[in-house]
Fold this sequence. Notes:
Chain A has helices at 2-14, 150-155; strands at residues 32-38, 44-51, 62-66, 75-78, 80-83, 90-93, 95-100, 103-108, 120-131, 135-147, 159-161, 166-174, 177-185, 191-197, 200-201, 205-210, 213-219. Chain A is mainly beta and 223 residues long.
Amino acid sequence: MRGFALVAGIxxxxxxxxIADDPAGPVSDNAVYLRLLVGIGKPMLVTGYLDExxxxxxxxxxxxxxxxxxxxxxxxxxxxTYTLPTNGEERPDPKIRIQHEDCDxxxxxxxxxxxxxxxxxxxxxxxxxxxxxxxxxxxxxxxVKFHTDPEAAAAxxxxxxGPPFTFKIxxxxxxxxxLVSVGLMDMNGCTLRLARQDGQVVSPTLKLFQxxxxxxxxxxxxx
Amino acid sequence: xxxxxxxxxxxxxxxxxxxxxxxxxxxxxxxxxxxxSKKILEERLAQLESGIVxxxxxxxVDLRHFPEDGETVFPKLMACLEDEDAGIRMLALSxxxxxxxxxxxxxxxxxGILTGDESVSTSEKANAAYLLSRFAPxxxxxxxxxxxxxxxxxxxxxxxxKYAVENYRxxxxxxxxxxxxxxxxxxxx
Lengths: 223, 189
């Protein structure tokens, strides 16, 4: 973990240099730039922007990414659409897909509105990582900022799809009983919503001790 | 979902093994699950009489933790609905969600707030709606009032009323387990 933190720290320092020049450039005046740090062993730095390719105000429909650090946003990923279950409305389904470390990493921006105010767009993010049938994890409810200025984006913390993670412990009393909740959080403020290994759900283990004696051992449940 | 344990002080160990992709994550710490004492209750009730708004607000927040003393606490919360400070009135409605059974006995009062005129703030109406949706037991009268308020709400109130109405509907008819994941994640957005 320390090794990763060191690598991530170095990348974080170097990353402002990594926003690429794009000869074509975005179509939209409201294109927003982002940086992703993806993976655990050798985190991969991805830079890019979300664009409205049909023109400003027409809706974000594609991401342009620099996946190999060569300074060019040459990978285009078009967004699909999804149907709102409540009224059947078709909406853009912005997702960025990255292959790294034998895994599929997907940044899901479905519930975000990117239209920036004063150059900054607040975004709600989710992300998943999948390795075949072997592993799946889904993190939800993170908050990040996207910038219309590439340099501001380069100076901001990257979105981290991967470690470090921390546990958030919630406690409260209700009547005569105590309630304890555990949530695994990433650096974007996302919470682990579901994890599966070999088809089995994996959830945090919670142990409580009093006077050195284990008084509770349980699997926390997602909900 | 929270785990229920007897109150007390505990050392805690949380862990999850997400190998081989995300590794193993561990946390060690201590937690303090202590029931607020009767002395604190008496102090907070006295502070509700303070002329300083912030003191009254701080006292109100703590009164959420005394559901077994509802006979004493709830009338004081009801009195807060007459406070000159809109923030106190709004907060009192929020704290009352810890007393759903007693609140249900005053349904007409809260429906009155929900359907009040422009002298009632949007936040008060929204909190009243959420409180109504938390009543124990649920009642058709409350459900009808919430649905009607939603139908007539302007944009400033509609989103929050929709949340209260969905909360009420879920309590009347819990969602299909197949839809649960998606519903839960949406409510967290």
